[in-house]
Design brief:
The complex is a heterodimer. Chain A is an all-alpha fold. Chain A contains nine helices and no strands. Helix content of chain A is 73%, strand content 0%. Chain B is 33% helix and 13% strand. Classes of the chains: A mainly alpha, B alpha+beta. The structure holds protoporphyrin IX containing FE and FE2/S2 (inorganic) cluster (FES). FE2/S2 (inorganic) cluster binds next to loops of chain B.
Chain lengths: 219, 262
């Protein structure tokens, strides 16, 4: 087996891949969230931003898209494989095991991950390709968003995804720095303020858009 | 025994041998002195079992002073029981109240097969050590003291990691039955000291590989291992392990078959 194969085969190697791809995805999410907030600057500004991404710098957009696709696939495959190994590592369960310090966020990484994966597929079909959109317009991204969130179930599905995202980030950002060997030694390694702030800012920032549409704050 | 004795109900995992089916069996533990250690409480119950012609509950123990790492059982769902940084042998019955029910189970991991009742085979840890948890020390006359400079910070971290007694509580408490804290403690202990440098990266690769071969799970950073560790080993050691593993994987190369001096 080659060096890369050995790395990927090891549980530590797979986890490092998850951490690295996670960091790439978090970086994207911060930029994506900030971009979305231009919705509050009006239809003209928002559609111009959309045109920038889909025409003016489309080559760059494609590089980003491919990087994200590879990241999501590696992240999800590693998560799946590690989960299977982790389950196999304890064939006989305890009659009683009481988690002492595990956070709700760490315990919901797997469910949240699956929800996010479904969300990513739906979201691309909704606002990028228009496959799942009732009245998709290639040049009218602002309108696509207003119509896209006009039904409550869809707005709630998005908000649910952001709920899981905040949990995923609260554990994931903190964990990634440890997995990648970057965290400094700490008197209380379970503390995670940076992850808390980023989780709230990213998931909260995204949530503002469906919330504002539902509350009638953008027209 | 006089007033103050505890009357408890134990729910204990009984299994007659390796690969045998086991089950939880209930036993009363009566008139238990709060001054007893947890293992002395089990001794007392066992005396009763032996007197009535039953098979005593098998459990591992040796030093009974919290330094050998032999003892260790799940007590009410927590590795080594409810008291922080305390082995089962150092846990005292005053921690419990009269009338308490106590669940007692062996460490559960595929890599730690049950030998009998509460006794598990922790040979997997020995094999992780054999893979790289050592230094190749030069023998001969002793060096001068202080001839190897080491920073206070590194010495402190190494000594904290060296406190690991290999009891297996980290594996037992981990939802993934991962041996990451144990392996990371050894990697940090040796990798922070000057004597550990020549084999540092070879060690990280070999020990992590062995940990996987033994069938332990991976680290999800739940933090349960650190909480369960009777020696308070920090998950910061796992950061060190991963850092060494990354450098090791990036710089790994074949050993030369023929060398200049060879
Ligand atoms: C594609 C769907 C996703 C799935 C199935 C998924 C699943 C998971 C799982 C199961 C874990 C814990 C791994 C373990 O057991 O140790 C995890 C960790 C993580 N996730 Fe995701 N996730 C997904 C999407 C995302 C997204 C969109 C982001 C970016 C915001 C992200 C960022 C992270 C980070 C940073 C970690 C921590 C890695 C580490 O512990 O070092 N994930 N993910
Ligand atoms: S018997 Fe030695 S540590 Fe408990």
């Amino acid at each position: 087996m080659g060096r890369l194969g050995k790395f990927w085969d090891s549980s530590v190697g797979k986890k490092i891949v998850m951490g690295a791809t996670g960091v790439i995805l978090v970086g994207f999410l911060i930029i994506h969230m900030a971009g979305n907030l231009q919705l509050f600057l009006g239809a003209e500004r928002f559609n111009a931003y959309s045109k920038l991404l889909k025409h003016d710098i489309i080559e760059l957009t494609w590089i980003v898209r491919l990087t994200l696709l590879v990241s999501v696939v590696l992240h999800a495959v590693a998560a799946y494989q590690l989960t299977m190994r982790n389950k196999a590592a304890r064939p006989e369960p305890y009659a009683k095991r009481v988690p002492q310090v595990s956070t709700y966020a760490s315990q919901t990484m797997r469910y949240g991950g699956v929800y996010l994966l479904l969300f990513i597929v739906y979201h691309i079909g909704h606002f990028t390709t228009g496959t799942f959109h009732p009245a998709f317009s290639e040049s009218g991204t602002f309108g696509n968003v207003l119509i896209g969130f006009s039904t409550w179930p869809i707005a709630l599905f998005y908000l649910g995804a952001m709920g899981f995202l905040s949990l995923h980030l609260y554990h994931g950002i903190w964990a990634a720095f440890r997995t990648l060997g970057l965290a400094r030694p700490s008197g209380d390694p379970l503390k995670r303020q940076i992850a808390l702030v980023l989780a709230i800012v990213v998931a909260g920032g995204f949530s503002l858009v469906p919330l504002a549409v539902k509350l009638g704050l953008v027209h | 025994m006089s007033a103050g004795g505890l009357n408890l109900t134990l729910h204990v995992w009984r299994q007659s041998g390796p690969n045998k089916a086991g089950k939880i069996v209930d036993y009363p533990a009566t008139n238990i002195s709060p001054e007893m250690s947890f293992l002395e409480m089990l001794d007392t119950v066992n005396e009763g079992l032996i007197t009535s012609g039953q098979d005593p509950i098998a459990f591992d123990h040796d030093c009974r002073e919290g330094i050998c790492g032999s003892c260790g059982v799940m007590i009410n769902g927590a590795a080594h029981g409810p008291m922080k940084q305390t082995t089962a042998c150092q846990l005292h019955m005053r921690t419990f109240k009269n009338g308490d029910e106590i669940w007692i189970e062996p460490w559960r991991a595929g890599a730690f097969p049950v030998i009998k009742d509460l006794v598990v085979d922790r040979g997997a840890f020995d094999r992780i050590i054999q893979a790289g948890g050592f230094i190749s020390a030069p023998t001969g006359s002793p060096q001068d003291a202080n001839s190897l400079p080491i920073s206070k910070l590194d010495a402190d971290d190494a000594m904290d990691a060296a406190a690991c007694i290999g009891c297996g509580a980290c594996v037992a408490a981990c939802p993934n039955a991962s041996a990451s804290l144990f392996t990371a403690a050894k990697i940090t202990h040796l990798g922070r000291l000057p004597q550990g440098q020549p084999e540092r990266y070879r060690r990280a690769l070999a020990m992590v590989t062995q940990m996987d071969i033994e069938g332990f799970g991976g680290c999800t950073l739940f933090g349960e291992c650190q909480e369960a560790c009777p020696k308070g080993i920090s998950i910061d050691t796992i950061v060190q392990m991963n850092r060494d593993y990354i450098v090791a994987a990036a710089s790994e190369r074949e050993e030369k078959v023929e060398m200049g001096a060879g």
